[in-house]
Structures are given as C-alpha cells and as structure tokens.
Amino acid sequence: VLDPGTGDPALAGIDTVTVRASEASLADALATAMLVDAERTVSVLESVGAHATARDEHGRWWTTPHWETTS
What percent of the chain has a predicted confidence (pLDDT) above 90? Predict the structure, then answer.
C-alpha cells in the first residue's frame, strides 16, 4: 500500500487490520486507509459505524469500541 501523499510505502505502524462495515467495499477502503494513516482513520470508522481490530508493528492487538459486540 502506498501513501498517496508521498508515493512511498505506507508506514502507519499497522501490520494487519480487519474492518467490519455495512458494505464490503467500505470495509476494504477503510482497511486500506488504516494501513496509511490509522490515527485519522479511527474517527472515520466511528462516524460510519464501522469497527476494526488491528495488530501494530510491535505485535500488540487493539480493537475499536464495540468490536466484540458486532456481527
């Protein structure tokens, strides 16, 4: 995944991410955005009712609120 601002490989510190959203295309777009800029994308996730779980470059896992309660 390339950072559109620089054209260089994205270095957001996220190794893997899974996003749950109302539509697959939205989940795909948000997952890609997380790989480029995780911090900014989290607020977008919340605004569209999507949820994510991710592993950072140090092997730590985190989830957005309500990840466990959605299906």
Answer: 48
